[in-house]
Amino acid sequence: MEVWQHTLRQALVDPAELAERFDVAVAPLQEVAQRYPMRISRYYFDLIEAPGDAVWRQCVPDLRELTDPTLSPDPLDEGRLSPVPAVVHRYPDRVLLLAGSDCATYCRFCTRKRKLGCSSMKVSEAELHAGIDYVADHSEVRDVLLSGGDPLLLEDDQLEAILLRLSAIPHVEMVRIGSRLPVTLPERITDNLCKLLRRFPPLYLNTHFNHPRELTPQAAAACNKLVDAGVVLGNQTVLLRGVNDSAVTLARLWRGLLRLRVRPYYLHHMDLVRGTGHFRTRIETGLGILQELRGPLSGMALPHYVIDSPGGRGKIPLLPESILRLGEQALLRAPGGETIEFPNH
């Protein structure tokens, strides 16, 4: 067993373990965790300074998760867009391949919150093979995004087998990996893993830093190893109420990412996922932050602000020409010209 695997086994899964360091009422947190399981890597747990801080909010259960019944558990309609269990095919030339079944830390705002820690998150070997077969059978697919769960929680030989099969498909031009392990389990980014990834260019990895406190020396070392192995790194930040919804916080984060050779790629407006409403800001909040930082911050540090539209219709860039109305119900124009109403509260 490698060091990172041993560390992963020490993750906190019972809210009672939070009482090791913090004076908290455990029973309400356990009630939430029965519906939406908790898992926090020891490394990420050690970044918490106090209950309710920016790291705590991202990983510790909150009673408000149980009082958000109006939203969909699957707002992006991934179920409908899955021609086979391990594939989500939303855009014509690219697919999402659910290669991983677990995460080092369960983010409380996750788009797949309905599945995290549940049997429905599991992808069998047969389903994964069928997903790669689907890619091979669809010549229009040139871009494959490995997601899950976290694909980097696979063992090296499992990940190698996936990358070998994908690299043998003539029409697949590039592979991307979505992983939060540089943030939540940086020890997973081993020399052996980087040696493996180096063999499969072009390879892109989008990670998920949300707050400058996550830019630790360990995270920096993990990112540097990946970049030195030829992996192109981008970052997708989610705009979260009470975590990073200020220009000062995001400026520190995005400047810090560039120092690590990680390009800020997307600022995501929160998806309409059931159990996450307390994280959602108004669209004006994100627009205001970017307006405030445009000029004081290098253009390289400014990501695209986007909404992933309900019903699986894809991302809408939040630009003046795409915003038709702002109010309690925003009216947005999708790239294809369709107009979409989006709750803005």
UniProtKB/TrEMBL annotation:
<keyword id="KW-0411">Iron-sulfur</keyword>
<keyword id="KW-0949">S-adenosyl-L-methionine</keyword>
<feature type="domain" description="Radical SAM core">
    <location>
        <begin position="89"/>
        <end position="303"/>
    </location>
</feature>
<dbReference type="Pfam" id="PF04055">
    <property type="entry name" value="Radical_SAM"/>
</dbReference>
<keyword id="KW-0663">Pyridoxal phosphate</keyword>
<protein>
    <submittedName>
        <fullName>Lysine 2,3-aminomutase</fullName>
    </submittedName>
</protein>
<keyword id="KW-0004">4Fe-4S</keyword>
<dbReference type="GO" id="GO:0046872">
    <property type="term" value="F:metal ion binding"/>
</dbReference>
<feature type="binding site">
    <location>
        <position position="103"/>
    </location>
    <ligand>
        <name>[4Fe-4S] cluster</name>
    </ligand>
</feature>
<keyword id="KW-0413">Isomerase</keyword>
<keyword id="KW-0479">Metal-binding</keyword>
<dbReference type="InterPro" id="IPR058240">
    <property type="entry name" value="rSAM_sf"/>
</dbReference>
<feature type="binding site">
    <location>
        <position position="110"/>
    </location>
    <ligand>
        <name>[4Fe-4S] cluster</name>
    </ligand>
</feature>
<dbReference type="InterPro" id="IPR003739">
    <property type="entry name" value="Lys_aminomutase/Glu_NH3_mut"/>
</dbReference>
<dbReference type="InterPro" id="IPR013785">
    <property type="entry name" value="Aldolase_TIM"/>
</dbReference>
<feature type="modified residue" description="N6-(pyridoxal phosphate)lysine">
    <location>
        <position position="315"/>
    </location>
</feature>
<keyword id="KW-0408">Iron</keyword>
<feature type="binding site">
    <location>
        <position position="107"/>
    </location>
    <ligand>
        <name>[4Fe-4S] cluster</name>
    </ligand>
</feature>
<dbReference type="GO" id="GO:0016853">
    <property type="term" value="F:isomerase activity"/>
</dbReference>
<dbReference type="GO" id="GO:0051539">
    <property type="term" value="F:4 iron, 4 sulfur cluster binding"/>
</dbReference>
<comment type="similarity">
    <text>Belongs to the radical SAM superfamily. KamA family.</text>
</comment>
<dbReference type="InterPro" id="IPR007197">
    <property type="entry name" value="rSAM"/>
</dbReference>
<dbReference type="InterPro" id="IPR025895">
    <property type="entry name" value="LAM_C_dom"/>
</dbReference>
<dbReference type="Pfam" id="PF12544">
    <property type="entry name" value="LAM_C"/>
</dbReference>
